[in-house]
Design goal:
With 144 residues, the protein is mainly beta. Strands 1, 2, 3, 4, 5, 6, 7 and 8 form an 8-stranded mixed beta sheet that branches. Strand 4 and strand 5 form a beta hairpin. The protein is globular, with a radius of gyration of 21 Å. The N and C termini lie far apart (74 Å).
Length: 144
């Protein structure tokens, strides 16, 4: 094999090896995960926001935990909300996220809501990485 062809073969092999090595991080979750956002959300009496939807997930990796993160975008503002503790056993379940009125500045009408099912990998007591394993985003109607 001439030298340029050998270099090209080596480069192709290296690229293939790198792809195989970096396509999935060590300990990556391989189970089916899913999340959805309900079409309507509530604004509470004190101006707070309640978002909801469904999720399903398998047990997180041994060095991690699962969480739901939701956000609302309306009129150029963005509000991030964490949901209550979730259970990952493969069953479809409801998630609910609440932001008190002192933090939420959302009006009645349409807004974009994004929900993420995230796997948090820990190193000791501190997060090492946060990976989104499922995502749903849609326009939602907010009502009092």
């Amino acid at each position: 094999m001439p030298v340029p062809a050998r270099r090209m073969a080596l480069a192709a092999f290296s690229a293939l090896a790198a792809t195989a090595l970096f396509t999935a991080p060590a300990g990556a979750t391989v189970f089916q995960q899913g999340i959805s956002v309900d079409d309507e959300a509530r604004i509470t009496e004190d101006g707070g926001v309640i978002l909801s939807g469904t999720y399903h997930c398998e047990q997180a990796s041994p060095e991690g935990a699962m969480q739901v993160k939701a956000s609302v975008e309306q009129d150029g503002g963005r509000l991030g909300i964490g949901a209550e503790r979730i259970v990952c056993d493969g069953t479809e379940r409801r998630w609910v996220a609440h932001a008190p009125g002192e933090y939420a500045h959302v009006r009645e009408g349409r807004a974009k809501v994004t929900a993420e099912l995230q796997e948090v990998r820990l190193k000791g007591f501190f997060p090492r990485s946060v990976d989104t394993v499922a995502l749903d985003a849609k326009d939602v109607t907010f009502r009092r």
